[in-house]
Amino acid sequence: MPEAVRPPYAPEDVLTPKRDMTHGHFRPGDQVVVLKGVAGGELWGDALTVVTPSWHTPTEEDGWRLRDPNGGQQTFVTAHPRYLVHLSRRCPDCLIYLRALEGYLIPKFADAGTVIDCGWYDTVAHDQIVHIADRGNGQ
Questions:
Q1: Rounded Cα gap, residues 24 and 30, in angstroms
Q2: Are 79 and 56 in contact (CB under 8 A)?
């Protein structure tokens, strides 16, 4: 995949911060994705594997420790369940969120030749993925 670019304006993520996804929705071994933008008319993101429960400091809620199968600088990260979408199974809750995000983002970035990173997520020093709406709490 070519290097992702940030658009001159990043559309506000109006869906993820309102998503009510409980910790129990995911289980160790689940394959998930953290959706970050659009590429070639489709959503793209980081594919990860759920490993074990882990406290998500930025939200002060139960999160999940995730493993990047490609390794790299941050092989293990922690994320809040509302950031995650199942890849390993087609559950209704994740599909509803996925379709809503597709309907919101894809029309904004119709250029199929550009990989767009909406800039909604950062990984902080303690290897925790943080959505821009969850910044604070010392982040």
A1: 12
A2: yes
For residue 77, the SS3 value is strand
- What is the residue whose two structure tokens read 């506000």? 12
- d(C-alpha 78, C-alpha 26), whole Å: 13
Helices (H) and strands (E) in the chain, counts: 1, 8
Model confidence pLDDT, tens digit, residues 67-88? 998 887 789 999 999 999 999 8
Q: Are 63 and 55 in contact (CB under 8 A)?
A: yes
* Residue 81: burial class (beta carbons within 10 Å; 0-12, 13-18, 19+): buried
SS3 45: strand
Exposure string of 29-57, with b = 16+ CB inside 10 Å and e = fewer, is ebebbbbbbbbeeebbbbebbbbeebebb
